[in-house]
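Kindly go through the entry underneath: sequence plus fold tokens. Please state briefly how this chain folds according to its tokens.
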Amino acid sequence: MWRLPLQLASPWRNSWVIWRLKLHSCREYTVRLDLEAIEDLMKQSYSASACVDVSCSVPDLAPALRDIQIESEGIAAKNLQEIDEWYKTRFLDFNQPSTKHAENLRRFREEIGNCKRSEKTQTLQEELKAMKEKIALHLCD
């Protein structure tokens, strides 16, 4: 605890103690006032509400949306054209070899047909020769 200096005499001692008590009570009072003030401020801050009236106009987004739509339609049309050209070139790339193979097949069939005809003709000529010989033998007898 707190002690009174020895230099102070007894008459001064009472006034000194009283002064210290008053000082102590003043400190307690100021602390209590500070706490009450802080509580009041906290209550005010929690109960306070703020209303802000913001009056700003919403920007018109229609022109920007129209520009975006026009741009996307242009890109879509360009993509369709590129896809169409790609498919046409692919079709030509696949069509040319198949046409060439079809022509080769047709030519081979014609050659096979010609070979068969020439074989038939040859066998018919041999049969005709054999018949002529038989007829000639038969007439000679």
Notes: The chain is about 85% helix and 0% strand. The helical segments are 10-47, 62-140. The chain has two domains: 1-45, 76-141. The chain has a mean pLDDT of 81.
